[in-house]
Write a structure and sequence with these properties.
Strand content: 5-15%
Number of strands: 7
Strand order of the largest sheet: 4-5-7-6
Shape: elongated
CATH superfamily of the largest domain: Homing endonucleases
Bound molecules: zinc ion
Helix content: 40-55%
Distance between the termini: 32 Å
CATH class of the largest domain: Alpha Beta
Structural class: alpha+beta
Number of domains: 2
Order of helices and strands: HHEEHEHHEEHEEHHHHHHH
Length: about 300
């Protein structure tokens, strides 16, 4: 099971005492779902627990049921569709949408003034359109929507909640995201996944400890196998970057360091520094090689921030 799926399972176990919060969570789900307008609500998900939770909430808050709950284009996915006019009217009225206007998706912030409702809302949004990278591979949590206004308004809401999210474009979608471990932890805690937040924290502590040990080990010249392992890893990462076509877009310094490593696959870091025409320090070169490994391991295309970022 992916870390995202674990997080969603935990969120789906969060109890919701107040009706305002149930409505707020549903609101997050609806706004970030596949379709939310006066004619149809359509939610597509692979998470059965989520599907069950949403059906129960719809019944609780709006006394409504989805038309069908399993008929989808794919066997592994649940598709929840609601087209009942009366139910849709009730929902639209509750969330303050005026069906006489052309329907552009906005966030009605007036419904989310209370902290408890806001936390429920971001849980709904995450359940519908969020994902989070496993903490042993890095810290990245995102919410994706194709609606421009919604992305801006949810950004504003998150800022108001004390978060510092960033926003960028991926294909034709807007992606609101967090890159640092504390923000990821905080988001998970607030949105009803505190155990997952602890996992992120533990992974971070473990990583720091490992780095500390590695630094000590690397100080000992006898530790040849470590050097070989690191070089192997660097070479693999460079190959990966080349294969994915990302290599050419890397900064000169990184490409030059990569070429140096490829030219001398067996050299230790110290040897590479001596062999390098780049006049780079040992720690500088080490940093660049590590950066290459990191880049090869990130799920999301680097260079991405440069192309599309609006808030970086
Ligand atoms: Zn509430």
């Amino acid at each position: 099971m992916t870390f995202s799926a674990m997080v969603k399972n935990e969120m789906c176990r969060a109890s919701v005492k107040l009706n305002c919060c149930a409505a707020a969570e549903l609101y997050g789900v609806f706004l970030f779902s596949n379709t939310f307008n006066e004619n149809e609500i359509r939610i597509i998900t692979e998470h059965e627990i989520f599907s069950t939770r949403i059906q129960a909430m719809l019944k609780r808050v709006f006394q409504a049921e989805f038309d069908n709950t399993t008929v989808g284009s794919s066997v592994v996915k649940d598709v929840l569709v609601l087209t009942d006019k009366d139910a849709l009217d009730r929902i639209m009225e509750y969330y303050g949408y005026d069906e006489s206007r052309h329907f552009a998706l906005h966030l009605n912030a007036a419904l989310l003034e209370e902290e408890h409702c806001r936390e429920a809302f971001i849980r709904g949004a995450f359940l519908a359109a969020g994902s989070v990278t496993s903490p042993d591979r890095g810290y990245h949590l995102e919410l994706v929507t194709r609606h421009y206004h919604l992305s801006r308004e949810v950004m504003a809401l998150l800022l108001d909640m004390g978060f510092s999210p960033k926003i960028t474009m991926r294909k034709s979608n807007y992606m609101i995201y967090f890159k640092d471990s504390e923000a990821v932890e905080d988001f998970l805690t607030k949105s009803g996944a505190p155990s997952s937040a602890i996992k992120v924290m533990e992974a971070k502590v473990e990583k720091e400890l490992r780095n500390h040990i590695n630094r000590r080990v690397n100080c000992e010249p006898a530790n040849l196998s470590k050097t070989v392992d690191a070089a192997q890893r660097q070479i693999e990462s460079i190959r990966k970057l080349k294969e994915s076509g990302r290599f050419e877009n890397l900064p000169d310094k990184l490409r030059q360091s990569a070429e140096l490593r490829l030219k001398y696959p067996d050299a230790t870091l110290g040897e590479l520094v001596t062999l390098s025409p780049l006049k780079v320090s040992r720690s500088g070169l080490n940093h660049r090689l590590n950066r290459l490994v990191e880049l090869a391991e990130t799920e999301h295309e680097d260079g991405f921030d440069k192309r599309g970022s609006l808030y970086d």
